[in-house]
Amino acid sequence: MGTFENLVSGDNETAILGISERYTGVWGESRGGASGVYGRSPGWHGVYGESDTNTGVLGQSKTLYGVHGVSTSSTGTIGESSSGFGVHGTSGSNTGVVGQSTSGVGIEGSSQRGDGVVGRGRRGVVGTSETYQGVFGSSRDNAGVVGESEAFHAVFGVSRSINNAGLFGGNTGGGWAGMFDGRVSVSGNLYVGGDVRPLGADVAEEFDVEEGATVLPGMVVRLGEGGGLEPADQPYETAVIGIVSGAPGFRPGMVLDTGGGGRRMPVALVGKVMCWVDADRGAVRRGDLLTASPTPGHAMCADADRATGSLVGKALAVLHQGKALVPVLTMLR
Q1: Any domain includes 15
Q2: Contact at 8 Å (CB) between 227 and 208?
Q3: Would you write out the chain's pLDDT as a tens digit for each of its 333 residues?
Q4: Is 313 left (phi over 0), alpha (psi -120 to 50) or beta?
Q5: Is residue 42 assigned to a domain?
Q6: Rounded to whole angstroms, how far apart are CA atoms 90 and 98?
Q7: 206 in any annotated domain
Q8: Contact in structure between 243 and 218 (CB atoms under 8 Å)
Q9: CA pair distance 220, 217, nearest whole angstrom
Q10: CB atoms within 10 A of CB 274
Q11: Residue 281 class from Cβ within 10 Å (0-12 exposed, 13-18 middle, 19+ buried)?
């Protein structure tokens, strides 16, 4: 058959209508390397497909693209669905759906209640670019990009450039560039270009606890005969090494040497820490120097002339009598 032309001019008239009770309504085939079916419209859809219970338009290929959409100024392929797939393309050996555009969107997926685009495979979604972002995510009210994994890193970033980072975060509004809810592990060097502002109050370092010793946060501790921590119980003893960090009121902002095994506790090196104080051995005022006391794990007000080598800190609050936790500025001297 050669060229067939059927010209109609009515608003609701169809030039070609194909109806089948059980199979394809319209079939087009080309054996010479051109399109099997070609549709063109100067002001509306070139090809339009609609179905009440199945796919509006289906493209399949055994060796190349199932559906190929090309646009020189706008969207190559657009798929929309209120409850199902916006676009579904399958291929036996190559790409299911390919969209190309020289100046607009290659592929766009839109859904009112579901996902705009879903990818499943060895890699669910792959984005590549020679000069710009491989994958871009944007949201007005929620996360731009979310990564989740049951058994590996939720987000994994690698850079092959010596001058760039595997993971980069910025904030143009003046807020946080990065936030972590949980522990953070750094296996290499850590470089910080701005201020480091931990939310905790002291810098601490972990030590082993002496076997059989009861060591609790806020206690004044010394090194025992085995080299581990135990409560200090001698006044002005020089074996004292500080106050155990983590008692209610303050928490450590940084803890060093956390890689050891066994039972370990952090001892405050610098900063504010809550300390058990025994004021029955002398009332404590703000600014008083503190040292080890005969009460196990407690500090007491120190005589500056006797305290060399045994000071643990300076009191930041008043305790007239009794035993209680008192905020202390760590001072080992």
Answers
A1: no
A2: yes
A3: 566 777 767 676 777 777 777 777 777 777 777 777 777 777 777 777 777 777 667 777 777 777 777 777 777 777 777 777 777 777 777 777 777 778 878 788 777 778 888 888 888 888 888 999 989 999 999 999 999 999 999 999 999 999 999 999 999 998 988 888 888 888 888 888 888 888 899 999 999 999 999 999 999 999 999 999 999 999 999 999 999 999 999 999 999 988 777 899 999 999 999 999 999 999 999 999 999 999 999 999 999 889 888 999 999 999 999 999 999 999 888
A4: left
A5: no
A6: 11
A7: yes
A8: yes
A9: 9
A10: 26
A11: middle
Write out the two tokens for 313. Answer: 């800190």
Asked if 299 contacts 275 with a C-beta cutoff of 8 angstroms, the reply is yes
Q: Which residues pair with 86 in a beta bridge?
A: none
| Tokens of residue 320, six digits | 């007239």
Residue 222 belongs to a domain with what CATH number? 2.40.300.10
Residue 130 domain flag: no
Backbone torsions φ then ψ of 77, nearest 5 degrees = -140, 135
Q: How many domains does the chain have?
A: 2
Residue tagged 């669905």 (tokens): 81
Nearest Cα neighbor of 317 from 308, 326, 305 is 326
